[in-house]
Amino acid sequence: MGSSAPVIAGIKRYKGKWEADQAAHLLKRTLFGVKKEDLDHCHKKSLKKVVKELLYTEAPLPPPPINNYNDDKYTDPEIQPGETWIKSLKYDGMNNGRRKNSFKSWWLGLMIYQDRSIREKMVLFWHNHFVTETNTVDNALFCYQYNMLLRQHALGNFKEFVKAVTVEPAMLRYLNGYANTRKAPDENYGRELQELFTVGKGPGSHYTEEDVKAAARVLTGYTINYKTYTSSFDPNRHDDADKQFSAFYGQRLIRGIKGKEASAELDELVDMIFEQEEVSRFICRKLYRFFVYHTIDEETEKNVIEPLAALFRKKNYEIRPVLEMLFMSRHFFDPANYGSMIKSPVDFTVGLCREFNIVFPDATNYIDQYGFWEQLRNQAAGLQQNIGDPPNVAGWQAYYQLPEYDKLWISSDTLPKRNQFTDRMINGGFSRKDKKIVIDPVAFAAGLPSPEDPDLLISGAVRALYRVELPVDQLHFIKTNILLSGLVGMASDHYWTMAWQAYQTNPTDKNNKNIVPNKLKLLFKYLMDLPEYQLM
Amino acid sequence: MKRRDFLLRTMPSVLLPSLINGFSIRALAASPLAQIAGGMDSDQVLVLVQLNGGNDGLNMVIPLEFYDAYHAARTNIAIPEDKVLRLNGFDKTGLNPAMPELQSMFNEGKLTIIQGVSYPQPNFSHFRATDIWLSGADTSQILSTGWAGRYLNVQYPRFPEDYPNRNMPDPLAIQIGSLVSPALQGPALTMGMAISNPNSFYDLINDRAASVPATRAGDQLAYIREMSVKTDQYAGVIKAAAQKVTKQSGKYPAAGKNPLADQLKIVARLVAGGLRTKIYLVSMGGFDTHAKQTDATDTTTGTHAKLLGKLSEAIGAFQDDLCLLQVEKRVTGMTFSEFGRRIKSNASGGTDHGTAAPVLLFGSGLQPGIIGSNPLLPANATVNDNIAMQYDFRALYASLLEKWFSVDKEVTASVLLKDYPLLPIIQNA
To answer: Distance, in angstroms, between A532 CA and closest chain B CA?
Structure first.
């Protein structure tokens, strides 16, 4: 790995330039890709207002996933086509898999149609944090409920979030909480609650194996009701003896409670865990890695993580203030962080659709709409990020595995696949019978400043698609070889200008028809094939 | 599903090369069977030299036979008669004085001039005319494939899924100095790869990483580039071929002085290193000389003379190199431009877009000389006068395919979509 200069800027309020560059940095990190209209909108407002909008917009909850899945082999006898299935309490071998696919496609659609709100990005963050896998949970309704829980708490109170997710049916199933009983305690959730969800395994975390066992005993008694598809607490399965915790938790003793009130032990357990400052540090580090840069050096730990963690505790684990402080900090806007992150597969695929304004069929054609969302989801899955199904309870490696972190997204398998995806989106697109999703190169170019000027067109495209600059000789190479068909010299620029204007005037003219779209396709294909396009 | 069907159906562009740092990447794992096979004497190579912008053929190949009409039509840029380079045995025609190397090659029997090459109803747009030359289309026909791509598609069936293999371990075609040319576009995929930047070629063979800024983003870029070289199945064979050649002709100018020479130097190295690649494409630009194409006081110097000088210097050094490297017999080259320029010069000391122009073939396997006659020039040329076509450019393609690459007549006709009369350009053919 190369070495690069450390970023010394701390968490203090950023008061520098607020221009397109800064706005693009903020939006690329907090949304999936940046639409021109989002950039234009945000650029005109102050940083403070933009951050408020991203964090506090109360975007309405989306309409739920629907029956898009009747096919040759199956017609849902209960749920009409186009109607939501989330009220159904009947799941079987025929409908469950179809509804799971419907759910996953729906989720991808939410990302594509996100508002100017960080919510969907946070849903992905929390999915990668409080991991469940649809393959293991294996019930479409639980998967949907869990996903909605992430959305509901995405920007709320982290402590409440932990309590809620602990008794969520999907989580009870995924980490065996439902099987954790007085007679046969199952430590799975008790361990991950500490190791992955709250105090973590950082240098300041010293919980013990005894703590894992004690936590597991506190959590005994939760069950899943498969008639109502809800979770409940069964005192008969609960271990009502006292639970002793280690010195890390100040030798805390959680008194066993009998009967229905015993679920209060969960509150006490969570309170105890949250008294450890390490919780705030662990979560702030994870947020930092997700939104800023993979490596946290000593300076950053001291100047960024510590103050964020202190605020997190002071605000009683409210999530928004921490994000607000981070996104308004000098550190976040240090140019050294621009383009320092490799796009995740979801950022790569969904981001492309958003930044090129790919038009999907609307809800009246939900079959094709869901179909295209599914195709995109499969693309992201092929690039090793299958939403709903991270590889294991720790989430996707690229978010935690040192020293490579997000470099893990790029391999000799996935890099060609990434290029194939962008090549396909610019060339033929993805088809479903007579419908197609494909980049409209002329429309994208028309949204750039001065597309008739080859230099400005290229620099505009580079600014829209990249977070880093291209060397001047590269820009020149692109102009000469792509837009000007090998013509060189200032005098040749007007050949592009004439072609562009001729196309605008008469797009169906036989001699002009292909020149401009073909050259623009080549241009955007080339730009998306360069390594720079992998960065955000 | 067959793999090819799969490719066509699900990822039509899977093998369109994506240029990473100037080096083309193809998305297939290297075949363990792929070995470096030495080029055989029978492995004919064609080098296409594209002159972008529309080369003024009338000031490159000068009709001494009609010198007065020539001088009258373009007094402000005409080459003085006594400065025109003479050609042994062909006293009616001469070369621009900037091209002494090509003059020598002609006199040694290694250059063939074909006069008046064009096509019916020529188009005057750079973009469209270039498409026509590269695709081999009629003037009103839109083809989505390139003429060389169609040839390679016939010659190497089931490319790319069955490649590289023992018989063809190397790229079918290599473009140097720019993007993969549309000339190499096959029915579904491009048949070629690109070394778009000569520097990246030397970075590859010397295991040198292209520089990135010392930033966090730069660190990520370096990693992605490294990965992109690893995924290029042809990087290894190219590197190995290049490393077999340790000494090249001293006639090449210093790197960076003559971009065409830099490109041809790589071609010579790869041919001599044993690559069995059939077609190389190189190019130079700047031929769109609407104004001040010559120095006002000395018409043997100026913009166009510099361009022709570079062309001559580059091809001269390349031929010398091929000879030294003992692969001269394997290589034939051809220059072409999207159109020639008008007979009459304009008031800005330049020439506007025209039609037919001479094509140069170079190599030691050619039937040397001049094919065709000097263009007839009107006594009082107007801006509307153009040089008449004598040969269709596709007749030249057909001749190269049949006589140089030994392609069957029917195949040639299928590649070029029509029958064209052949020209006597190759020795003993």
So the answer is: 7
